[in-house]
Amino acid sequence: xxxxxxxxxxxxxxxxxxxxxxxxxxxxxxxxxxxxxxxxxxxxxxxxxxxxxxxxxxxxxxxxxxxxxxxxxxxxxxxxxxxxxxxxxxxxxxxxxxxxxxxxxxxxxxxxxxxxxxxxxxxxxxxxxxxxxxxxxxxxxxxxxxxxxxxxxxxxxxxxxxxxxxxxxxxxxxxxxxxxxxxxxxxxxxxxxxxxxxxxxxxxxxxxxxxxxxxxxxxxxxxxxxxxxxxxxxxxxxxxxxxxxxxxxxxxxxxxxxx
Length: 259
Hints:
Elements (H helix, E strand, L loop, with lengths): L10 E6 L2 E6 L12 H13 L6 E6 L10 H4 L5 H21 L3 E6 L2 E3 L1 H6 L4 E5 L3 E3 L13 H9 L1 H10 L2 E3 H6 L5 E3 L4 H13 L5 H12 L4 H16 L2 H13 L1
Parallel strand pairs: 2-3, 3-4, 4-6, 5-7, 6-9
Antiparallel strand pairs: 1-2, 7-8
Helix pairs in contact: 1-3, 3-10, 5-6, 5-10
């Protein structure tokens, strides 16, 4: 089933053999997100994961890339910083909540590039798989922005504050191998085998008693020392301030001009 829409990233869902596959279907924009798209993705995840026949869920991007993050065409020229902060906060919290509340295991199958918010979305899932061509990119500082989509919590919690700080400050990327080595991804597969391997893992997990993975997710979250909702709110406030800086707007507009 493909959700019809006139703007924003395309979202398609299909269910087979207990596995729901949600695809971002705008390869011409590297599946970049427009304002409001996270709310639509959150709704798609909720609907698919709550279907009676579904026992595992895969999120993947169509085309060469998983998700290029936020569309700067939708962000350049933002004027009302309070409204922007509220929108970022609401959208990200809704998407994180959809992943957290999913009654089935969620898998981010990262094909190609996951940049900025794309990386943040991938890290919201229970498990990440990467293709050999995959990269996680964190280019925020290069255009005067700060990390968002819960990255300051989710990435730092998984790879350590020091390594996360260095990635955010330098704007560097993580290769597929580094994602596995750092414990961000469960496994790396060759590009031509990637989707089939993702389905194979989802099928294995779908055979387990339903509700087990939700219970494990809740226990892991409770064992953590911090709350991602706090990080999301702080990121939204800081991001709105960064958007009000003239040099940041200039960098964003220059980037948009190259797209």
